[in-house]
Amino acid sequence: MSKVSTAVLGASGMVGQRFCEMLSDHPYFDTPVLFGSERSGGKSIAEVLTIPEPRISDELLGAKIRPLDMGEIADGNFGAVFSALPSGVASGVEMPLMEKGCRIFTNASSNRMRREVPLVVPEVNHEHLGMVEGREGFIVANGNCSSIGLAMGLKPLEPLGLERVEVTTMQALSGAGYPGVPSLDASSNVIPYIDGEEEKLGIEIPKMFGTLEGGGITPSPVEVSATCTRVPVRDGHMESVLVSLGKEVDADEVRRMFSSFTSLPQRLELPSAPARPVILAADIRRPQPILDVNAGEPARARGMAATVGRVRVSGRNVRFIILTHNTIRGAAGGSVLNAEILHSRGVL
Ligand SMILES: NC(=O)c1ccc[n+]([C@@H]2O[C@H](COP(=O)([O-])OP(=O)(O)OC[C@H]3O[C@@H](n4cnc5c(N)ncnc54)[C@H](OP(=O)(O)O)[C@@H]3O)[C@@H](O)[C@H]2O)c1
Fold it and tell me: Which of 69, 86, 132, 337 has minimal CB crowding within 10 Å?
């Protein structure tokens, strides 16, 4: 079977380079055509690399980035367009491209809460992808990187009833893109506020856990209260979570729910699906970004697993820590896994 043709918008950025990793030698998707701004236009990926230990094919490392051209993308007949554009740019690009028939998988926040755009974490709400089936052009959005990590931790507990969530995030520097937070602000420091982030968690989680009906999503009544901080970690968002459930539960049951959790991507054995989407750390000192950020097997799913630790239970309240790779599971990898699901359904 021939591979699906693809493009990456914002290919030179932190998320764009992860798209290059996830799409290197992909069994379903062809080597992407790369677009950036005028700044990176004409350069190769090798010339703009900023991620550590890149696992990018030689073909993609040498590929030249083109300045973003709406006409070229719309006329390119790409089977899938992966977007890592800043939201301010994406807002003027993605909807017009969708209206011209492009199938867009985006990480930008600008279109996430639109009624016709599903906000999908593959293991959490893959059924929301049903909204785009039968449509010529569409947008499938990823959530904010911290929303994705939190959703991965809440999903195994959903059968117990999710009532209220309090979360404090410790977000990595790469979450701010490149070059990101000024070094004098970041070094040996914690910044106790990230503009707009807490509100996103509060609205995105109810949409992800909502019900698909009448062509749109009815949000879940779960309440989410967030405090978002930036910490001097390169990659990996850690989150300290307190969730109030609909009924009492014991700690062993909660641990079993985390460690046995799988979903559709695992049943379909999709190329970027980690065998275990949630890994329960046995060591009380884990997870740690430096040790666990790249969790996930097989090799193509490196960075796609969330690691959970510090599980504590009291009555209906469960506390835990969760760590996810913000630019892989929280961005490029999530988009590629969504596209793999739609490919398996014959939509792409
Ligand atoms: N970083 C994360 O952890 C993360 C996680 C989830 C979602 N996101 C979202 O993903 C998107 C990308 O984030 P990032 O961290 O990769 O940001 P980034 O490192 O700043 O990269 C931005 C990319 O967009 C390109 N770009 C900027 N202005 C452009 C323009 N006017 N026309 C065309 N291309 C333009 C840049 O190209 P040049 O290099 O040529 O300037 C670069 O390739 C953002 O919407 C962000 O909110 C990020």
Answer: 69
Q: How far are the Cα atoms of 7, 37, 49, 77, 90 from residue 64, in angstroms, in the given order?
A: 12, 12, 13, 19, 21
Active site residue 228: no
CA dihedral of residues 276, 282, 285, 287 (deg, nearest 10): 0
145 annotated active-site? yes
pLDDT surpasses 90 at 22: yes
Please tell me whether residues 38 and 111 are part of one structural domain.
Answer: yes
Interval 102-159: pLDDT, tens = 999 999 999 999 999 999 999 999 999 999 999 999 999 999 999 999 999 999 999 9
At 214, the pLDDT band (50, 70, 90 cuts) reads confident
Q: Whose CA is nearest to atom 3 of ligand 1?
A: 175
The C-alpha atoms of residue 275 and residue 298 are separated, in whole angstroms, by 7
Give the model's pLDDT for residue 215.
87
Position in ligand 1 atom list of the atom nearest CA 12: 43
Q: Which domain holds residue 242?
A: 145-326
Q: How many domains does the chain have?
A: 2
Any idea of the CA torsion for 103, 107, 109, 112, to the nearest 10 degrees?
A: 50
Q: Are 333 and 55 in contact (CB under 8 A)?
A: no
| Mean pLDDT, rounded, for 178-194 | 96
Q: Which of 102, 145, 325, 343 is catalytic?
A: 145
Closest ligand 1 atom to 40 CA: 40
- Is residue 289 domain-shared with residue 231, that is, in the same domain? yes
The average pLDDT across 189-196 equals 97
Ligand 1 centroid vs 108 CA: distance in angstroms? Answer: 8
Nearest CA to ligand 1 atom 35: 37
